[in-house]
C-alpha cells in the first residue's frame, strides 16, 4: 500500500457519479427481465397480434398484468439493497437528503423497466409493420403503461426499504398480480376503471385524456408513497396523494365513458364488382384482395342467381337487412395470421354458411333443409371436414348411413342440374335464407 | 444506555478511542458521525450544533466516516464507488474526478481504480472504505476499527496515513488494538461502560503501566489495564487522572 504519493495529474474520466447506479447492479437486469418477459409473452401469442395495430396495442397493454408485478418485485429487491449491502450506516452521514438518496437508488430500476417496456413495444410495432393491413399504430396507452411500470418500481422500492423479509419481493409480485388480475376478471364495476392493467379490448379506444389521468393516478400513488417514506417534510406526500385521488375519482365517475368504439371499425371497404359485393372492415383494408380471391369461386358460381344479399359485411354485430356477415377477420389468429388468410377454403365455406343464415336453428332443422344446405355448401365451397364426416357416417348406424346416402344424392342432384335450372333452384333456395321452416326450401 | 455523561472535546490530531468490547466506542463514533442522535445532551462539531438539520448537513460535508461494517456495492468499480460517495457528500462535480483519484492514490489503489470492488481482497476493500472517507478532504475523520482486515504491512502504512491526516484534521480512531494507538495517536481516550475512563497522551497512558506489574505485554497495554482498573475502582480514579 503506497500512502504517500498524492496524485495530482488531471483526471482522465469525467463520468457522472450516478452513471454507476444506472449501468451497474440490478437496474439493467430489470430492464432486460422486462424485455425478455415481454418478448416471451409476445412471441407465444404472435399469431394473434402480429398483423393488426390494435391487436398489438392490446397485447402490449394486457401484458401489464404480468410485467407490472414483476417490476414491483424488482423495485422491492433494489429497495432492500442498502440493508443487504450494509450501506445504510454510511449513507446516513451523506449530505444529500434521504429523498435524493432514495431517488438515486430507485430511479434506475424505474427507468430501466420503462426502457425495457419501450424497447419491447418498439420491437412489437416493428414486427407488426410488415403485416398490418390497414389502420395505424396506436400509441396512446404506451406512455401510461410506462408510467405504471415506473410507479410499480418506485412503490416496490418503498416496500423493499420497509420490509426486512427475504421473500418480500416474490410476495409483493404475487400480491400485485392478484391486485391487478381480480378487477380484470371480476364482474363489471366502477373499480375496474382504476386498474391500470385492465385489458384493453381490440375494438375500443380510450378517450385522449384517459392515459394522462391514469398516469396521474398510478404516478400519484407511487409519489405519495415515496414522499411519505423519504421526504424530510412527509406532509408533502399529501400533494401527489390528492392528485391521485382526484384522478381516481375522475376515472370512476367517467366509467365506461373512458372508452369508445374505434370509428374505423364501423367503416367498410368494399369491392362492388361482385354479387354479393364483398366488404371488409376498414381496419383490414389490405386484406380485401385476399378475401375476394378466397370467395372468387363462390361468387363465380352464384353469377345470375337471384335473392342473394347485396353484400358481405365484416362487422362484429348482426348483419343488417340484405347483408350477410363475413367470417370474422378479427380477432386475428383465427382467420388471419400476419396479414394472410390462414385457410381460404375454410373461410369460403364459413361465408357460404353465413349466406344460408340458418346458424340459429341448426339443431331443429328439418332433415330435408339440412340436406339442401349441405348440397349448396358442397357445390359452392365444400367444408374442409366434409370427407371426414362422410366417412364417419358411412361407418355409423343404419340411420346415419341412410342419411349420408340421401345427402350424397342431393349433392349429386344439384351438381347434375343444367346451368339455368341450377340458377333458378338456387334463386328459390336463397329466397328462404334465414328461414328455419322446411316448406319454402325447394326440394332436391 | 451505551453512553453516560460523556463530555469530550477533540482538537486537530489523531485521537484514539480505546476500550474493551461493548464499552461504547462505536456508539460514541456513531454519535459523532451524526448517524445516531444522543437521547440527551448536545453534540457540537466544527462549531455547529448537529441537532439542527441544516447545521448537521454542513457538518456532514466536512466529515469522513468509515463504519465498523463497511458496506459497499460489489458491482461498482473503486472509482465509481468513491465518486458516488463524493456525490452524496455534495462535492462539486468538477472537482470530484480529481478528488477521487487523489483519495484512491492515498490508499495505494491507483492501479485498481477501475477494478470492480468484488474482485478486490478484504484488505483492499478496507482501503476503499478509507478512500471514500477521505475523498472530501474532511476536517473530521471518524474510523471505527479501521485496521480490521489489514495485514501487518498495511496496518503500518495505515498508521502513517493517520499521522498525515491528523496534521490537518481531527481524526478519531476507535480501536481495541492499543498498539495502533501507541503508534499513531496524539491523544487517547479510554471508554469503559459508556463512560470516559481516561484521557491523555499515549505516553502518559504507557507511563501509568510503568510501575504496574499486572497483565500486558507492552507499557501501553499495562497502562490500559491500569486505567481500566482505576476507573472500575472509583476511589482510585482521582489518583490516575492525568
Textual characterization of the structure:
Chain A has 18 helices and eight strands. Chain A has helices at 19-23, 26-44, 46-49, 53-62, 64-79, 81-85, 88-91, 98-128, 141-162, 168-185, 210-230, 238-254, 288-301, 344-356, 367-380, 386-394, 398-416, 419-430, and strands spanning 204-206, 259-261, 268-271, 277-281, 311-313, 323-325, 336-337, 340-341. In chain B, the strands form two sheets. A six-stranded mixed beta sheet of chain B has the order 4-5-6-1-7-8, sandwiched between helices. A two-stranded antiparallel ribbon of chain B has the order 2-3. The longest helix of chain B is centred in the middle third of the chain and has 15 residues, at 152-166. In chain B, 51% of the residues are buried. At the A-B interface, helix 1, helix 6 and helix 7 of A face helix 2, helix 3, helix 4 and helix 6 of B.
Enumerate how many helices of chain B there are, as a single number: 10
Arithmetic mean of pLDDT of chain A: 90
Low-confidence stretches of chain B: 235-242
Query: N-to-C terminal Cα separation of chain B, in Å?
Result: 26 Å
CATH homologous superfamily title of the largest domain in chain B: P-loop containing nucleotide triphosphate hydrolases
**Total number of helical segments of chain A?**
18
> How widely separated are the two ends of chain A?
105 Å
Beta-strand segment tally of chain B: 8
Largest sheet of chain B: 6 strands, mixed
Number of domains of chain B: 2
**Strand content of the residues of chain B, in percent?**
15-25%
Structural class of chain B: alpha/beta
